[in-house]
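Appendix B. Worked example

We walk through a single record from start to finish. Start with the input: the chain for Metal ABC transporter permease, Paraconexibacter algicola, length 413.
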Amino acid sequence: MIDLLPLDYPDAVVAIGAALLGITAGALGVFAVLRERSLVGDALAHAALPGVCVAFLVTGAKDAGTLVVGAAFAGLVGALAMVAIERSGRIRPDAAIGVVLSSFFSLGIVLLTFIASSESANQAGLEKYLFGQAAGLLERDLWIMAGLAAASLLVVALAFRPLKTTLFDPAFAASTGLPARALETLMTGLLVVAVVVGLRTVGAILMVAMLTAPAVAARQLTGRLALMIPVAALIGGAVGVTGALLASGTDLPTGPVIVLVAVGVVVACVLLAPGRGVLWRAGRLRAERRRRLAEGVLVDLETALHAGPPPTAQELADVSGRRPGAVRRGLRDLERTGMLADDAGRLRLTDAGAAAAHAMLERRALFGAWLEHGHRLDVPDAREPDPTDLRASLGDDLADRLHALVRQQEARS
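Next comes the structure step. The output line below is what the pipeline stores for this chain.
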């Protein structure tokens, strides 16, 4: 794969490493984000630092495999410590995260300082696990990262249904016989794997961004967990490669650039995601307001035409009580849809406009009848009908019975 990429060997290694990090952290970070435990990843990333230092002190070598084992062990100890503190019932989960994060990270800094003051020639570069040093990745590091990523994703694929059940409803999962606590611990352990994969690239401090940003972006694009995990992985991989290439071309630190790219993707998804994006929803709300305005102006014009001669736009505004600007906007929309005809400044409805106005008045009358007589109907289920189309919600039979009740009341009066 390194030979296939149109990049220099160091850039290709960094790009592949960043892709592996993004895919792993994106897929596994979904469980942290949906559990509302994103800061657990931050605590685990900081907890891995003393493990790296202890592994170096024990072996005296800066071997990537040994340091990864130390980081993984420390991360697992930190994860079990958080779980134990939470289950004690005396400390809140957020406090447990804070305790583990601060204590383990403080221990890591102390150990780093101790190692730096020693006379070991191999200690240079350990501080890179704090902020990351993607440029120092080697081919054997990629094999380790790829193995951890493949193993963790395989676990997710094999245990997807139990993990999904426990993720959204731990009590129900336990009631069905699933080992809910073990599965929750497994989800935390998967975060440890993601942290270990990313320590060399972005470091302990920035790792939480890679666990949360792709998952948050994917959540804006889909609401299904089965799609959210691969989408988050793809976003994470793309973010990692893009950030690595940008950093390589600008001589900037790789980790921070990757994180900034991830933040940019999150902002774009939050603003523009179909169905959930802020700008998307603002556009839909604006369109809905314009539609309702046009419908209101249509009804006002129908009422004015029945009361007298065709009005002008100003006369319609005076009669309806709406602002002239709003009336003009509504009239323009009606004209574009072929419901309005302008006869020398006098407003008339086309056949389509008259039919639409009559249908709207009927829907309003039917909803008023529902509010007044709906309790007298024997509705087969407890539902709240759509006020914009009551007939479609209730069915023709119940709608006709509502009309019959209205006629009976009018006959009695």
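Two observations about the output. The longest strand covers residues 340-343. The chain has a mean pLDDT of 85.
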